[in-house]
From TrEMBL, chains A, B:
InterPro entries: HTH_LacI, LacI/GalR-like_sensor, Lambda_DNA-bd_dom_sf, Peripla_BP_I. This is LacI family transcriptional regulator. Residues 6-62 form the HTH lacI-type domain. CDD domains: HTH_LacI, PBP1_LacI_sugar_binding-like. Signal peptide: none annotated. Gene3D superfamilies: 3.40.50.2300, lambda repressor-like DNA-binding domains. Keywords: DNA-binding, Transcription, Transcription regulation. Pfam families: LacI, Peripla_BP_3. It comes from the Bacteria.
Length: 338, 338
DNA sequence: TAGGGTCGGTCAAACGATTGAACGACTCTG
DNA sequence: CAGAGTCGTTCAATCGTTTGACCGACCCTA
């Protein structure tokens, strides 16, 4: 009564051919010459028996898992949700399955994942978010192709794909300049994040077109969280009074920025304009709806997958995904008052 | 120069034993009797060579993949982020890897996933979100153990784990009643979602303690999105004027509810109190910060994994995760005005 | 009609780990 | 000192696919 799994041999027997034929038919082997009616018999047998190739056996033989790994810090962060979505889509398009794991969690850690995944379970690994040098070493020791996503590391690893954060910052600041703002301050991301550095650089560059020169007091760092944004804003209110606009390094911090401004009795956008990087669904529903720079996060994830699958491990891969960046003008920015 | 993968045989050779010994040492086979120094030699060889078992070979032999699949509608939905986090954690604790896929996407669909996963790649499957009857049939045909998460299906499939949605609704409504509200309306979820039905039922039951009897006009349906919440609210403002509080079936819709109330010139919580189901990080940052019922979503995911791994396929599994539900009192609810 | 080409297949050796069975060398025990 | 256990280890079959090598039948051509 218990039905055994259907294998190649079963199909071969039913079709009256050798299992080699069946295998080649299944894999559409171009070197196969076969009579049309034989192929027909095979296909029929496959469908009648409901045959499905065993992945384990196939992986064993071919030494390919058909799987890619993506490690992110946290599923609850919508930025990574976008990256995952893009990566998954690209992986599926190439016939691969994507395994996504978080490196912060009750039983998970980067280490744990490297142990579980580094056994031929995946053909390649993508790391989004911060990584330690030790983890990178371990990664190298696994002999897997891997690359960093949205992080450009200072170490010796030369495979990564990032976004044009400086350009995003410029778009945001130029928007504010066009609205007539001059004294524009910056709520920057954490020191360790290279995305934050690039956005700060873009801010400085764009501010060259302002009459207001950027001073140290015009920039405060947050840790990419709402609370961090709130604290940085409080700091800026003290250090850099008179600013009419804020460029925030990400949407999460912008939430805290809006909170703090409101509590300080400042109206957005009447008194202060706010623009942030990343256009997440959330932005639209803040009060006021947040003006943002849309970043191609899905494309970032997709490019990472493509590069991982097409480049050879020794290749250096350093790509900046630059398309489809645009300013999304909502309610948190308005012309500067004369 | 190119280093071959290290196998059992290599380790065995270096340690001067048979590969069977190595295998049993690696797997901590309790039936193995071995001299301590031999074990030591084996372990040393393993670490010297950096041996890692090949998952494909192991899966082939044992017919176990060590992997579970979880299919969700959308990574961007924070509700599923919580479920994933819980499921991942439980899976890792049991030595399994979790493969999470979304069923809505450029190249993904439930079907596509069933094809990719239903080949011995996973030992079991969890489905969160809506499922069609055809998909369920296909699932059955794969002969995989599977279960529904956060959905209780009307079909013949009798394996699922859900939350006590009625109880959550009661907590919310009782909170409003305690604040003195009587005319409480309900922005319900879509008809197809059983979670929505249970929450509506809980609402009706709790309202038995109100002096205001629930009429059809006191309930409007939305589709669990902000827009849906906005539309339902507009409908309620027309149909059921005079309400002093709204119970919203989920946080996403609550976003739209707050929007619409604001645009209608109603202040929250001074004029209308709002409480919603699910405590997501987002809730804290809405304006005003949203009072919610915290649901054990992570535990839901974790229980699903545990049940999938411990129950036998023919068992009926119908579990309601009920712990850790509580009301989170924030700024969107206040005492009813006399 | 011998020799060489296609055609249309079949054969069998991997891939790397797991696991029941067998086995040789000891140590007891009666 | 024969017979029976333990102890510690080896043997070998098996999981299901893939893939290069081989092979027989048939058709040409010289």
């Amino acid at each position: 009564m218990t039905t055994r799994r259907v294998t190649l041999v079963d199909v071969a027997r039913l079709a009256g051919v050798d299992k080699a034929i069946v295998s080649r038919v299944v894999n559409a082997d171009p070197s196969l010459v076969i009579r049309p009616d034989t192929r027909e018999r095979v296909l029929e047998a496959i469908s009648n028996l409901g045959y499905r190739p065993n992945v384990a056996a196939r992986s064993l033989r071919t030494a390919k898992a058909g799987t890619l790994g993506l490690v992110i810090p946290d599923f609850a962060n919508p930025v990574y949700a976008e990256i995952i979505t893009g990566a998954e889509s690209a992986a599926l398009a190439r016939g691969h399955v994507l395994v996504t794991g978080s490196s912060t969690g009750a039983h998970s850690s980067m280490d744990r994942y490297l142990d579980l995944l580094g056994q031929g379970r995946v053909d390649g690994l993508m790391l989004a978010g911060p990584t330690t040098a030790r983890e990178q070493q371990k990664l190298e020791s696994l002999g897997l192709p891997w690359m960093m996503v949205n992080r450009r590391d200072t170490g010796e690893h030369h495979r990564f794909v990032i976004l044009d954060d400086a350009q995003a910052a410029k778009l945001a600041v130029e928007h504010l300049l066009e609205l007539g703002h001059r004294h524009i301050v910056h709520v920057a991301g954490p020191f360790g994040a290279d995305t934050a550095r690039r956005r700060a650089t873009g801010y400085r560059q764009a501010m060259k077109n302002s009459t207001h020169p950027v001073r140290a007091e015009d920039i405060a760092r947050g840790d990419y969280t709402p609370r961090g944004g709130a604290e940085a804003t409080a700091e800026l209110l003290r250090k850099s009074p008179g600013a009419t606009a804020v460029f925030v390094a990400n949407v999460a911090m912008a939430v805290g920025v809006l909170d703090t401004l409101r509590r300080a009795g400042l109206r957005v956008p009447e008194d202060v304009s706010v623009v942030a990087v990343h256009d997440l669904p959330l932005a639209e529903h803040l009060v006021p709806a947040l003006t943002t720079v849309r970043m191609p996060l899905q494309e970032l994830g997709a490019r990472a997958v493509d590069l991982l699958l097409t480049s050879s491990p020794e290749d250096e891969v350093a790509e900046v995904v630059g398309t489809a960046m645009e300013l999304v003008y909502r309610e948190s920015t308005a012309p500067a008052r004369p």
